[in-house]
């Protein structure tokens, strides 16, 4: 702790295994996989067969972020494909506890995600019913967007009520100029796509981000 979770959305899909090796060598422990359905978010990414292929190619933990209108339908498929963490959005879960129970029964660790406009009060009642709370710092659907600093207050509020061991993740626009503030607010998992895989020296950048997260840890 803290961990930098590289988002493979910014990887070279023609050389996914090469990019995963590079992230392993850099010291990554968890890979972040963004699953988009073109309904909950206005974009498509990849699905179950790609997660299975990633699972076969690495022993790193897989943090699967479901941006799906109907996540319940796909929990079993993504757990079967090898997800270690499986996160669903509060915006499409009327009672996320049922989804958390199902995810645990399927052998994965449940997480809850919220979009920037969703008030933190919608998330707080469920924080200690799951192990990972992910706060989006951009509207989901695309990599390479700018960090919305309003997320920091949400992270602070979540940190206040969360168990000591809670994984508090932040996703979107994380890079050298934003990670310190997110760490100081209480985040301990940092999803980074463009600001990591878009750099010529990925290993050096991974270590730089990790260092900033450690130095500014709350
Ligand atoms: C956005 C995804 C993010 C995305 C982050 O919908 O949830 O995980 O890959 O990308 P960057 O780090 O480029 O903002
Ligand atoms: Zn994500």
What is the topological layout?
Layout: E1 3-6, H1 16-26, E2 30-36, H2 48-57, E3 61-67, H3 75-81, E4 85-89, H4 96-105, E5 109-114, E6 132-136, H5 151-161, E7 167-171, H6 179-185, E8 189-192, H7 194-197, H8 202-215
Parallel strand pairs: 1-8, 2-3, 3-4, 4-5, 5-6, 6-7, 7-8
Helix pairs in contact: 1-8, 2-3, 6-8
The chain binds D-xylitol-5-phosphate and zinc ion.
How would you characterize the overall build of this protein?
- Helices cover 34% and strands 20% of the residues.
- With 218 residues, the chain is of the alpha/beta class.
- The chain has one domain: Aldolase class I (TIM Barrel).
- 43% of the residues are buried.
- The site of D-xylitol-5-phosphate (DX5) has 22 residues, from β2, β8 and α7.
Broad CATH class: Alpha Beta
Unreliable parts: none
Number of E strands: 8
What's the mean pLDDT score?
98
| Rounded Rg | 16 Å
- Briefly note the structural class of the backbone: alpha/beta
Strand order of the largest sheet: 1-8-7-6-5-4-3-2
**Molecules bound to protein:** D-xylitol-5-phosphate, zinc ion
Task: Give the H and E element order.
Answer: EHEHEHEHEEHEHEHH
Major β-sheet annotation: 8 strands, parallel
What proportion of the residues form beta strands (DSSP E)? 15-25%
N/C terminus separation = 12 Å
**Total number of helical segments?**
8
Record keyword descriptors for this entry.
8 helices, TIM Barrel, binds D-xylitol-5-phosphate, 20% strand, binds zinc ion, single chain, 218 residues, alpha/beta, eight-stranded parallel beta sheet
Short description:
By secondary structure, the chain is of the alpha/beta class.
């Amino acid at each position: 702790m803290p961990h930098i979770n590289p988002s493979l959305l910014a990887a070279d899909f023609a050389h996914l295994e090469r990019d995963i090796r590079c992230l392993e060598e850099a010291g990554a422990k968890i890979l972040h996989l963004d699953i988009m359905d073109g309904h909950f978010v206005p974009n498509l990414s990849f699905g179950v067969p790609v997660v299975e292929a990633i699972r076969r190619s690495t022993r790193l933990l897989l943090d699967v972020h479901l941006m799906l209108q109907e996540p319940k339908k796909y929990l079993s498929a993504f757990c079967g494909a090898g997800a270690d963490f499986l996160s669903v959005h509060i915006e499409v879960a009327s009672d996320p506890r049922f989804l958390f129970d199902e995810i645990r029964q399927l052998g994965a660790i449940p997480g809850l995600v919220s979009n920037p406009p969703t008030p933190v009060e919608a998330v707080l009642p469920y924080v200690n019913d799951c192990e990972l709370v992910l706060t989006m710092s951009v509207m989901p659907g695309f990599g390479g967007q700018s960090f919305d600093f309003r997320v920091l207050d949400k992270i602070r509020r979540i940190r206040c009520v969360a168990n000591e061991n809670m994984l508090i993740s932040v996703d979107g626009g994380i890079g050298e100029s934003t990670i310190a503030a997110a760490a100081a607010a209480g985040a301990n998992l940092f999803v980074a796509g463009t600001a990591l895989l878009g750099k010529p020296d990925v290993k050096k950048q991974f270590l730089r981000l990790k260092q900033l997260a450690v130095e500014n840890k709350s």
